[in-house]
Amino acid sequence: MRFLDQAKIYIRSGDGGAGCVSFRREKFIEFGGPDGGDGGRGGDVWAECVDGLNTLVDYRYQQHFKAKAGGHGMGRQRAGGKAADIVLKVPVGTEILEEDGETLVADMTEIGQRVLLAEGGNGGFGNAHFKSPTNQAPRRANPGLEGRERWLWLRLKLIADAGLVGLPNAGKSTFLATVTSAKPKIADYPFTTLHPGLGVVRVDTREFVLADIPGLIEGAHEGHGLGDRFLGHVERCRVLLHLVDANEADVGKTYKVVRKELKLYGNGLDEKPEIVALSKADTLSEEERVEKLAALKKAARKTPIVLSSATRENTDKVLKALLRAIDNADAELDLDVPADKIQPWRP
Ligand SMILES: Nc1nc2c(ncn2[C@@H]2O[C@H](COP(=O)(O)OP(=O)(O)OP(=O)(O)O)[C@@H](O)[C@H]2O)c(=O)[nH]1
Ligand SMILES: [Mg+2]
Fold first, then answer.
1. Under which EC number(s) is this enzyme classified (predicted)?
2. Best of 2, 165, 167, 169 to mutate for ligand 1, by most ligand atoms within 8 A of CB?
3. Does domain 6-156 have CATH number 2.70.210.12?
4. What is the CATH number of domain 160-334?
5. Partners of 254 in the beta sheet?
6. Contact at 8 Å (CB) between 307 and 243?
7. CA dist., res. 227 & res. 5, Å (int)
8. pLDDT, tens digit, for every residue of 126-157?
9. Does residue 114 surpass a pLDDT of 80?
10. ipTM above 0.85, yes or no
11. Closest residue to atom 32 of ligand 1, CA basis
12. Residue 214 CA: which ligand 1 atom is closest?
């Protein structure tokens, strides 16, 4: 499953329909008054936050959205019809930005949330509107107002239960490919993964979503490497799986580089529950294993899991640890009971 985190779209609301110039014509009525109807409103373009969407992938196939124009007014006071609105469905967590990619238009955070992105043009008045004591037969009608066009960015921060972090080449994508049916690109060089990817992990009867995130390097929080864009994705993961390549000369230092980036980025990234694993353990001798594990344990101040995607050593153990951490994170969230549901305290 490929995961698109942003899309640029063009939207245009519909023009208003034109007002109509018309006069009443009926048998035995010599000077029928003006009866030109108003034009209908052009269609609006809305964004709506919906359930069940995880990606912006649909916007890769279609980027242009134009609402239709309102109907023109007609004789006998008939108004033109209002054109249908266009509703762009987006997943929870989508940010809508101006063309500059920086100015926030809307943050779509709740299912059902709707935002008007471009209002349809108003229909023009028909000549019936311009009748006055001094002008009983106006030949005037307004054209409809034009619709509005704009370019926008849709940007989605990943929402996943667990996210993979680590330096480039740590074995993150390989792990995702080993434990899910996802097929990320894997290669023996840094920055293989350019977009976050998602996979669904099954542990016994349970499922959770694991996100593969491009590698982080020193300075990532200020845009180095693939930049801080991906740290934004980490924000939406409830727990982290931090992989440290066992082939690194100094695994403790490697661990700390990534931790530092998480901390400097802010937004609580370094407070997320973290499982630490020493990856590619199959490449180590018995001695190295003990030594590297001790070094990583010292830096992380918790016991890392020795992991190999190649031999599947401890892959299950890692998944179970992640599931436990996710469940604990859920339990913590449940403590956030809305104020009106809290029982008043009585001495
Ligand atoms: N021996 C061994 N090699 C591994 C293991 N896991 C990954 N590798 C190799 O390590 C290299 C990098 O793996 P990736 O999964 O692409 O690493 P990554 O962390 O996703 O890298 P980026 O996407 O660049 O951040 C590849 O050549 C993999 O075959 C493992 O468990 N054992
Ligand atoms: Mg990768």
1. 3.6.5.-
2. 169
3. yes
4. 3.40.50.300
5. none
6. yes
7. 14
8. 999 999 999 999 999 999 999 999 999 998 86
9. yes
10. yes
11. 280
12. 25
